[in-house]
Amino acid sequence: MSLPSSASGKGFKEASARREALQESFIKTTSAEARLMKELGESKPVIQEKEVVMLEEELEMIPFVIKVQRAFRLVKFVYRKFGPLLFVDHQSQASYGHIKFRHVLKPASWIAVAPSVSARRLVKFMDYYWELPKPEVLVTITGGAQDFALAPDLHMAFDRGIVNVGQSAMAWFFTSGSDTGVMKHVGYAMRRNDLDRPLIGIFPFGVTKGREMLASYKAKVAPNPNPNPNPNPNPSPSSSPSPSPNPNQVAPYVLKQADAHPDRNGAPLNPYHTHFVLVDNGLEGSAAWASEIPMRSALESVAAEIKGTPIVQLVVQGGLGTLKTVVSTAMAGQPIVILSDSGGAATAIYEYIRPGGGIDYVEDAFTGGESLLALALALALALTLTLTLTLTLTLTLTLTRRERAGAAPDQADQRGLPRPAARVLQAPGERAARGRERSELVPAP
Predict the structure, then answer these.
(1) What is the rounded CA–CA span in Å between residue 231 and residue 369?
(2) Which of 273, 307, 341 is the last residue of a domain?
(3) How far apart are CA 260 and CA 210, in angstroms?
(4) Using DSSP, how many helices (H) and how many strands (E) does the chain show?
């Protein structure tokens, strides 16, 4: 049933009149909300113009963003699917797989690379193929490669420092990976404290005991063969878990009695490392020792740069090679932590730079020939360091360079040397081996 035209016209006029009355009353109102709406209504053409400009800019960016997203997805797909094939050993072959240690539930991943490998490419491999979590700090540990014992109180301080770092932040730990010296101490410390963090060993392939066994179990290409050591506790429904390694691709790391102990021709791998990068330059036996050092330094520096994370070096015991490593670290301006009572290079550096110390307090093994040259370089750099005495990696007692050396502030600046922080871990009590009194350090305000 339709209404008469006169009635419909009258209703339309009444509705129009009511709308105009409401608009007029709204415009005349003095409320803050109404004034704001009025201003927005008056500036509507300007806002529309800005929106159009922003929309045009966004439309211009869309092709670039799409290209970046496609490139990222392509790189991620290539590394996840074919990651190990991007790296070769000295025979130009892809050599990688998994190692199953006794009494360790989860297999460790390993890959053999040439010394000239691209560090950036290797970091991407760790991200996309090994699926390591994004680190908040990198801890590189260097020192004695020979087995040594730590005093109980020093052992406790060492464990506490490692655990504090691992529990307070997502850390990547780098060592040489062998089951000897400081690397063994780090592995067992993380095992004892059930610390689930990536522990990456970088070791020469030519001195790896059981390398023939690894070569016979080279894995085949498979996407994501390594489960994430630190899985996301809240995975998205769309993400699928990484498959476990094929048992046929896992090498059981069982050594003969003759190979179970380190010697001049090699050393076994530590069972509590989660990943191994084995540097293969074609040499075997004693000639292959230290061939991984340049690649390891490059990898650690590039990883810190790409991830935007700090890197800290921990020095435990050590010899001449450790001194040289400390020099290169100090020149790069990176923080250094010294376990002073552990002996060797760590104690030699501490004895030289401590208040009242000097070359007369350094062991004879570090005061002659090439050792003296390396120590002199480390100690010259020590004039620019900040010495710290601590029992953990967090609580410190500080002594400034001027208080230690009595030098003018501009002397080190004129040499253009960096100023990294050096921290010294020291156990309480008297040092039984040396029997000398320690100098008292006053905490900084």
Answers:
(1) 50
(2) 307
(3) 9
(4) 13, 12
Q: Cα(83)–Cα(202) distance, rounded to whole angstroms?
A: 18
Read off the pLDDT of residues 153-208 as tens digits, 9 standing for 90 and up: 888 888 888 988 898 999 999 999 999 999 999 999 999 999 999 999 999 999 99
The residue whose two tokens read 């790896």 is 208
Strands 421-425 and 386-390 come out as parallel
- CB burial readout 224-241, b (16+ within 10 A) else e: bbbbebeeeeeeeeeeee
Which has the minimum average pLDDT: 104-108, 125-129, 356-360? Answer: 356-360
Across the beta sheet with 171-175, the strand order is: 250-252, 95-100, 108-113, 275-279, 199-204, 171-175, 137-143, 311-316, 336-339, 421-425, 386-390, 397-399
Q: Is this model's pTM higher than 0.90 or not?
A: no
What gap in Å lies between CA 99 and CA 89, rounded to an integer?
18
Q: How far apart are CA 196 and CA 105, in angstroms?
A: 13
Q: Cβ distance 189 to 197 under 8 Å?
A: no
Entry field: residues in the chain: 445
* Measured CA distances, 339 to 16, 34, 159, 388 (Å): 87, 70, 12, 11
Largest CA distance in the chain: 118
Structure tokens at 181: 């010296």
- 201 within 8 A of 179, measured Cβ to Cβ: no
Whether residue 329 is found in the same domain as residue 400: yes
- Over its C-alpha atoms, the chain yields an Rg (Å, rounded) of 32
- Report whether pLDDT(234) > 80: no
pLDDT above 80 (res 237): no
- Both 348 and 367 in a single domain? yes
CB 215 within 8 A of CB 232: no
CA proximity to 104, closest of 29, 24, 191, 35: 191
CA 437 centroid distance within chain: 37
**Distance (Å) of CA 164 to CA 74, 156, 426:** 38, 12, 16
Same-domain pairing of 249 and 334:
no
How many beta carbons lie within 10 A of that of residue 423, not counting itself? 26
Same domain for 386 and 316: yes
- Residue 52's domain spans which residues? 40-71
Compute CA distances 230 → 130, 160, 170, whole Å: 11, 21, 10
The label of the residue with tokens 């990696």 reads 393
